[in-house]
Amino acid sequence: MAQIIKRGLFMSFSPTSYTAAVLILEATNAQLTSVPVATHIDGTSAQSGALCAVLFFDQNNTTDGVVIAVYPNGSSGIPTPAPGRVVFVTGTQQITAQTINNGSTSTFTLNSGGIPGGALAVVCKVQLTSSTAGALAHLAPHGASDITAYMTIGGIQVVNATIYESGLLPLDTQGRIDIKAIAGNCVIWLTTYGYIM
Fold first, then answer.
1. What are the structural domains of the chain?
2. Which of 122, 124, 120 lies closest to 197 in space, CA to CA?
3. What contacts 179, CB < 8 A, 6 or more positions away?
């Protein structure tokens, strides 16, 4: 029983059964159906018209295989937008009661609690309080040219009130963010519970 990898044309993907229809290129009239797909491939990357690699565990049994890779076929099979996967992890407090003075920017690295290096963004909950009415904070990837273009929390109406926000916060390539306090000193907590690769 010899294993073999064959090149194919990815015809369709079923996320329900996690299987694909594949046309094996060496035998253009042989379309295989219900071929299992490796779980690292998802609906964003399993594009019709893409090329694929199918590993057959027994080269004489076309029903005993798995699609192990999907890749562009010239201009076909290129995901638009590029694949991005949200992964949820156990909530981890990354920033605890950090005071940021009015007009100041602080930088933090979000690399614990299951957030891997190379993550593009985090799913987070942010908590802010201030002794100044109207205080707010801008959060952005470290070094962003416009820190106001990303997440903002605050504008509190009552002194010492607490405001909560949740959202997606982009990271720089080293997993860092900047937080800038505006209109008053701010105390910040930040919890992550997911990331995007």
1. 4-71 (2.40.50.140), 86-196 (2.60.120)
2. 120
3. 98, 100, 105, 106, 108, 137, 138, 139, 188
Count CB atoms within 10 A of the CB of residue 66.
Answer: 17
Is residue 20 within 8 A of residue 31, CB to CB? The reply is no
Chain position carrying tokens 């005993």 = 64
Q: What is the pTM of this model?
A: 0.66
In the beta sheet, which residues pair with residue 176? Answer: 109
Phi-psi region of 87 (alpha: psi -120 to 50; beta: other; left: phi over 0): beta
Q: What is the pLDDT of residues 75-91, one digit of tens each?
A: 777 766 566 678 889 99
**CA gap 102, 186 in Å, rounded:** 7
Q: CA-to-CA distance for 70 and 61, rounded, in angstroms?
A: 21
Q: What are phi and psi of 60, to 5 degrees?
A: -95, 0
Using CA atoms in the order 147, 152, 158, 160, what is the torsion angle rounded to 10 degrees? -70
Buried b (16+ CB within 10 A) or exposed e, 17-55: ebbbbbebeeeeeeebeebbbeeebbeebbbeebbbbbe
Residues 103 and 186: their CA atoms lie apart, in Å, by: 10
Pairing between β-strand 19-24 and β-strand 4-14 as defined by DSSP bridges: antiparallel
Q: Give CA–CA dist 108/92, Å, rounded.
A: 14
Which residue ranges in the chain fall short of pLDDT 50? none
